[in-house]
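Second attempt. The first submission of Alpha/beta hydrolase had a stray character pasted in from the spreadsheet, which I only caught after the job came back as garbage. Lesson logged: always re-copy from the clean sequence file. Corrected sequence (190 aa) follows.
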Amino acid sequence: MNIIICPGMHERELTESFISGCLNLNSDSLTTNKSVNILVYPQQGVLTISPLHILQFLHNCLGDKLESPVIFISFSAGVVGAMLAAHSWQLLGGKVTAFIAIDGWGVPLWGDFPIHRMSHDYFTHWSSSLLGSGKYNFYAQPAVEHLSIWRSPQTIQGFAVKPTEEFYPKSDRISAAEFIHLLLRQYESK
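This time the job returned cleanly.
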């Protein structure tokens, strides 16, 4: 399983914190026995929204292994470039297993691959869903600052929701990191 991380316009340390707080590969709860290849898109600034540069990075990392499944995890401005890169990768014959958009407020999400939105508050969750939402999404409750959900997802509590239901599970809280782990476990067999 390949996971491509597409950060936003922020310090690299926040992405490193996200990876250590959420994608700790020493944790048995992330994967069973499959190897996980984490690819972190290295560009900063305006290049975080460039689908061409993201696609080139993905091609450089995976070469001609288009059949190798890719899960996109993107944050903030990085959601813009990542969404278009995911579509381009798929048009080239690549396999996009899932797309996770974290705080991609105002970014339309569409595709014939599973899409999940994660938001730092209910307003962002609600207003972003008007531009497309996935089958299973997350929002922080209580609300947190925008960068907090990326910096330390393991500490952010909230609710996993389906678009047709207000809360799912209705009474259970989950951390942002746990939500991502649930998704990755669901998709690791595909």
